[in-house]
Amino acid sequence: MIAPVGAYITLSAILFFTGIVGVIARRNPLIQLMSIELLFNSANLALVTFARTWGNNVGHIFAFLVITVAAAEAAIGLAIVVIVFRKTTFVDVDEVATLKG
Amino acid sequence: MIGFVGLSLLMIASAVFTVTAKKPVYSVVGLLVNFIALAITYLTLHAEFLAVIQIVVYSGAILILFVFVIALLSSGVKPFATGPDRAPRILIPALAFGAIGLAAVLVAVYFTTFAPETIYGLTGQADVFGSVSDFGNALFQHNLLPFEVTAFLLMVAIIGVVLLAGDDAPVARRLKRNREPIARSGREPIAR
Predict the structure, then answer these.
(1) Residue B10's pLDDT is what?
(2) Full-model pTM
(3) Can you tell me the ipTM of this complex?
(4) For B46, which of A41, B64, B117, B130 could close a Cys bridge (C-beta 3.0–4.6 Å)?
(5) Contact A4 B72 (CB under 8 A)
(6) Which ranges of B74-112 does DSSP label H, i.e. alpha helix?
(7) CA-CA distance, A36 to A56, in Å (whole number)?
(8) Which are the contacts of B50, defined by CB distance < 8 A and separation ≥ 6?
(9) Is residue B59 over pLDDT 80?
């Protein structure tokens, strides 16, 4: 498949800002976490594209580490969601203001 | 090129569906489609090992974790009572921010000349590029320390999750202990 590098980077940017809008605008923490996964994936796409462009597989290593960080982030984020749900039975990030000064 | 356009449209559509879906389960389905299309895109970039990892780790592990938590939380009486309205006052700034950032990146991409302008087939060492042996060589011979740091990170994440959400976790116990003296001293409980 032949496509210019700019097309891959454009796709990555579109996915990234779709995820940004999801993180900012949605109030359901689960959907916010999934939007964060979108962000990780778009960054990975840019990394893999440049790795392919330069023929250097360090980009693959970096993408691998990003996937690991995403897994850890998802696990801890979901644990926090479960804790909050235990206390309030109300999954809405705007209602979780216990730490507000 | 036609395949790339098709994959791109599929990925963008599924991403938008993920962000705008009413229920988290629909979001998971959209995210699954997105991950599989992204894995195919990795294949077109000769990142074969990463494509497999993408499917195994993301679609196989992370999304299952999401589905599990959604099922766990939905077993109550009124699942996912999200706020009164979707708040257009935050939606409009979010869309504006996204549009401005996307426009900035697109302008930067448009005015940048990437050194190899186009990705053509296989070149140079590329007949093994991205394969499992190539990836393993790079990971274990030149990047061993990041790999070990990754193992440490995963261990910290596991311990953190157990401490946070375990059945008899210290966090839960401390929450219980802190609630009592506040009630006894007659102070107002913290408003939520």
Answers:
(1) 94
(2) 0.83
(3) 0.90
(4) B130
(5) no
(6) 88-111
(7) 27
(8) A44, A48, A60, A63, A64, B42, B130, B135
(9) yes
Candidate from B4, B116, B175 with C-beta closest to A3: B4
Helix, strand, or coil (residue B45): coil
Q: Could you say which of A31, A55, A81 has the minimum Cβ distance to residue B125?
A: A55
Which residue of B lies nearest to A29 if distances are taken between CA atoms?
B24
Pull the structure tokens for residue B191. Answer: 């408003």
Does the distance separating the beta carbons of A58 and B143 come in below 8 Å? yes
Torsion over CA: B176, B181, B183, B184 (sign): positive
DSSP state letters, A11-26: HHHHHHHHHHHHHHH-
Band (pLDDT 50/70/90 cuts) for residue B86 is: low
Q: Chain A, 64-93: which have a CB under 8 Å from a chain B CB?
A: 64-65, 67-72, 74-76, 78-83, 85-92
Q: Does B157 touch chain A (CB under 8 A)?
A: yes
> What's the rounded mean pLDDT across residues B94-111?
88
Query: Are B118 and A5 a contacting pair, CB within 8 Å?
Result: yes
Q: Chain B partners of A45 at a C-beta cutoff of 8 Å? A: 38, 41
Write down the CATH number for the domain with range B1-75: 1.20.120.1200
Contact: A52, B156; criterion CB under 8 Å: no
Q: What is the pLDDT of residues A62-93, one digit of tens each?
A: 999 999 999 999 999 998 888 887 776 666 77
Start-end of CATH 1.20.120.1200 domains in chain B: 1-75
Residue length of chain A: 101
Q: Go through the domains of chain A in sequence order and give each one's CATH number.
A: 5-88 (1.10.287.3510)
Q: What is each CA distance from B102 to A54, B8, B131, B147, in whole angstroms?
A: 25, 16, 33, 33
Residues in A touching B21 (Cβ below 8 Å): 31
